[in-house]
Design goal:
Layout lengths: L1 E6 L11 H4 L4 H11 L4 E6 L3 H11 L5 E5 L8 H9 L4 E5 L21 E4 L4 H12 L2
Parallel strand pairs: 1-2, 1-3, 3-4, 4-5
Helix pairs in contact: 3-4
InterPro entries: DHquinase_II (IPR001874), DHquinase_II_CS (IPR018509), DHquinase_II_sf (IPR036441)
Catalytic activity: 3-dehydroquinate = 3-dehydroshikimate + H2O
Family: Belongs to the type-II 3-dehydroquinase family.
């Protein structure tokens, strides 16, 4: 089973930025742990700070992969284009947010992509990625 994790803007700074919100571990380090936990999955990771690159990646993998774990970062709340890209593909998408977006600034409470995703996991730190992978790997 082939699953890709796609992270959006500023998530390349995990472990460096706002440690009280996002923790002190880089995503690359955490990704290695995920690969060790989910040995039955073929996992890939992609990150971009550029909206169009995220859309291109969704288009590229959205018809051939078994699942996508997607954290759109700030684009979650602003990008109709990413929402449309998710709607256009066949591969199921699990939306993940490290922080609880509903406990933060009001503008973060709205996700434009949730309606196009299988579900949203928010507020469980990096463990949200584990939850999403578990869901996608057991989905028939």
């Amino acid at each position: 089973m082939k699953i890709i994790i796609i992270n959006g803007p500023n998530l390349n700074l995990l472990g460096i930025r706002e440690k009280t919100v996002y923790g002190n571990e880089s995503f690359e380090t955490y990704f290695e742990k995920l690969k060790g936990k989910f040995t039955n999955l073929e996992l890939e990771y992609y990150q971009s700070n550029v909206e169009g690159e995220l859309i291109n990646k969704l288009h590229k993998v959205g018809f051939s992969y078994d699942g996508i774990v997607f954290n759109g970062g700030g684009y979650t709340h602003t990008s109709v284009a990413i929402s449309d890209a998710i709607a256009a593909i066949n591969t199921p998408v699990a939306e993940v947010h490290i922080s609880n977006i509903h406990a933060r600034e009001e503008f973060r409470h709205l996700s434009l992509i949730t309606k196009e995703c299988a579900g949203m996991i928010t507020g469980f730190g990096l463990m949200g990625y584990d939850m999403a992978l578990y869901y996608l790997s057991t989905k028939s």
